[in-house]
Amino acid sequence: MSITANTLAKPHAYLAAQTRWRPIEIAFWLAALLPFILFPTHLSLASQIAITALFALSLDLILGYAGIVSLGHAAFFGLGAYTAGILSAHGWGEPLSGLVLGASVAAIVGYAASFIIARFRHLALLMITLGMGFLLLEAANSASWLTGGTDGLQGVRTWPLFGRFQFDLFGYTAYTYSLVVLFLLFLLARRVIHSPFGLALRGIRENALRMPAIGAGSRKHIRTIYTMSAAMAGTAGAMLTQTTETVSLGVLDFQRSADVLVMLVLGGAGRLYGGLVGAVIFMVARDNFSGLNPQYWYFWIGLLLVTVVMFLPNGILGGLAQLLSRWRGGRQ
């Protein structure tokens, strides 16, 4: 059977259709501006949500699209946080350069680790990524002369953004800064996912052994996306340090890696917006549940997680997509 030009054009037409902005996407990003109007006293929380959403997006790139399971993704988040913090503590608090350096350090370590990550799958990956997280946590704890150890890094001061906009307690600058960085990196992730490279990642997720037969080197693709994911996580960590002017061992803790996995499960992995929606739900729920019961608030998070997994195994966005598909089918 000969391959026609129409057949060859179908993948390109599919990718072109995926890159078009839908009204619901525009509405989502416009809604991200509402805290400035509706919740001006909660902009600090909103900035934390934006930072966490970027961290969740970074994990979604490897988990949702390449099938790389990680229990130690906080390692890259922490690397970015400590890089920006150490730079600031030693006299250079300019936020944009600190952000770039934090992302670069995380990317370099991520690239080095990707040569190991690309060789393993499933349970072995869980153990390797978990071990990497513990190694960096203990290294940071041991190097208290550099990181501050359990006391946290002291003397972190972030300079005004562009020399004009001060990071204050009200959170206007912090939320604007976090939201803009999140949006720009989301555009990058969206472009990557809706490309031939993104299609190859989904093929690797489904069957990594067969992908080289069609010309897509699995390990090379995994190394590329893992490095990109590490850089995004490092960016999120650097932003957390800059907007809060604090950094401690908690940025490398296993709990942070577990929390971001919970966010992806809640929102729906492999959907780009799943991590963002999951971060909003998780952070708002945590803020409210901890206010109700500071000691046992994780009980309610666990109950929410079990409910979503039982009734919406593909996450909230996956469930909404199924409902929309059924509704469209019923109308035809």
Structure in words:
With 332 residues, the protein is mostly helical. The chain is built from 15 helices and no strands. It is globular and about 55 Å long. It starts with a helix and ends with a helix. 42% of the residues are buried.
Layout of secondary structure:
Layout lengths: L4 H15 L3 H9 L3 H4 L4 H21 L10 H16 L5 H23 L5 H20 L1 H4 L24 H22 L2 H11 L11 H27 L9 H14 L5 H20 L4 H15 L3 H17 L1
Helix pairs in contact: 4-9, 4-11, 4-12, 4-13, 5-6, 5-11, 6-11, 10-11, 12-13, 12-15, 13-14
Please supply descriptive tags for the structure shown above.
332 residues; mainly alpha; 15 helices; globular; disordered N terminus
**Global geometry:** globular
Rg: 20 Å
Unreliable sequence segments: 1-8
Name the helicity range: over 70%
Run of helices and strands = HHHHHHHHHHHHHHH
Beta-strand residue fraction: under 5%
